[in-house]
Amino acid sequence: SALDAAHPLARAAQAAGRRSYVSPTTSDMALMPFPSLKMGPGESSRSHTADEYVLLPEIGEGIGIYEEFIRQLAGIL
Questions:
Q1: How far apart are alpha carbons 31 and 25 in whole angstroms?
Q2: Which of 16, 20, 29, 52 has the fewest CB atoms within 10 Å of its CB?
Q3: Among 11, 3, 2, 4, which Cα is nearest to 77's?
Q4: pTM, whole model, 2 decimals?
């Protein structure tokens, strides 16, 4: 799945300092019939593996990233 760079979700993520890339893992997002993006704390290479984990500092950082993403999205919409 892919999201056009001009889409409000993509613009908000970029404005929040996130970079886009092709994830090495997949998710149910590929089956969603609406625009979406995959964003979460931790290293993408650790997701969907037998020993998947997220470090506590990564969770704290993720909260701040989500807050900034929501602020940016609200300003765009």
A1: 14
A2: 52
A3: 11
A4: 0.81
